[in-house]
Design goal:
With about 300 residues, the chain is of the alpha+beta class. Helices cover about 35% and strands about 25% of the residues. The N terminus is likely disordered. Bound molecules: zinc ion (ZN) (2 copies). One zinc ion binds next to loops. InterPro entries: ArsR-like_HTH, DUF7347, DUF7351, WH-like_DNA-bd_sf, WH_DNA-bd_sf.
Length: about 300
């Protein structure tokens, strides 16, 4: 039977970190991480770590078993958690924490001022130089900033952000694969409607506009495609419906149901979104789309 509990005791978390507070055990993990197949025999690991006492070495291997490593027919390999740990650490090392600001080609959709992208303490911010509005903020690993031109960096950040939103709205945590809750809220005085997608296990979260959830919707992709714009390749912050709530209508708050109008080239598509992230097309000014049975 599947354990549906998302609760992990603090002592379990502390015990997992405690396992890493030992030079021999870290050396074992490092020896596995740096092998092409992430697999090694007992003797290969013992030689790599440089420990003579087989009993002591076996003790440390056993300590790591079940949390970071597992046995195979030939020896030992990582569990998924051991690999994720390595990748997370690698992603945060070797890149800059800050980079020079970039002026984006897309102007501020509120006031048409210049949008400036900055990277501060491993978080991207796009802010308008004129009205001061922050149109996006999202964490990004330093490894993603290194070795890329400005244009490549913007594309990488756009792709990364879209995948995060995709996974979150599908109910899969992009950081630990657990389940996601979606909480609608009105934001401050502006009455903007935002959704906070939060992991039920690792507390990872991202707050999005309603429109961002529609970015990968087939009806929205088709709507823009018919009007000659590829919504899958233009940066998501260049779409007004992704950066404000002006065209969002709240239909109900208990349970939440909202309608988003998306406008382009004189045409409009309206979609509904409920608390479970189910989307439906309410209507569309392009006949061939509004008549499609695929959206009903
Ligand atoms: Zn502005
Ligand atoms: Zn998570």
């Amino acid at each position: 039977m599947t354990d549906t509990s998302s609760e992990v005791e603090l002592t379990e978390i502390r015990d997992a970190f405690q396992l890493l507070a030992n030079e021999t055990r870290l050396s074992i993990l490092y020896a596995l991480w740096t092998r092409p197949t992430w697999e090694a025999t007992f003797t290969e690991l013992k030689t790599a770590v440089g420990m003579r006492d087989s009993g002591q070495f076996q003790y440390h291997l056993n300590q790591l078993m079940g949390t970071f490593i597992q046995r195979t027919d030939e020896g030992y390999t990582h569990l998924a958690g051991g690999i994720a740990l390595y990748r997370t650490v690698l992603g945060t090392l070797g890149g800059p924490d800050d980079i020079p600001q970039l002026v984006l080609e897309t102007p501020c959709l509120l006031c048409h001022g210049s949008l400036v992208l900055s990277y501060e303490n491993q978080v991207f911010y796009a802010r308008c130089e004129s009205c001061g509005e922050t149109v996006l903020s999202s964490p990004f690993f330093p490894a993603g900033v290194a070795n890329r031109t400005d244009q490549e960096l913007l594309m990488a950040f756009d792709t990364w952000s879209r995948r995060l939103i995709d996974l979150l709205q599908s109910g899969v945590c992009p950081w630990c694969a657990s389940t996601i809750s979606h909480d609608f809220e009105r934001s401050g005085d502006s009455e903007e409607v935002l959704i906070t997608h939060q992991c039920t296990r690792c507390e990872g979260f991202l707050t999005t506009h309603i429109g961002e959830v529609f970015l990968s919707d087939p009806a929205v992709i088709s709507f823009f495609y018919l009007l000659g714009r590829d919504v899958t390749t233009a940066p998501y912050w260049s779409f007004e419906f992704c950066t404000d709530s002006d065209d969002v209508t709240v239909l109900s708050e208990d349970p939440w149901m909202v309608e988003q109008a998306i406008r382009y080239e004189g045409e409009t598509i309206r979609l509904k979104l409920d608390e479970t992230m189910d989307t439906t097309v309410a209507d569309c000014s392009i006949d061939s789309l509004s008549n499609s049975s695929a959206w009903l």
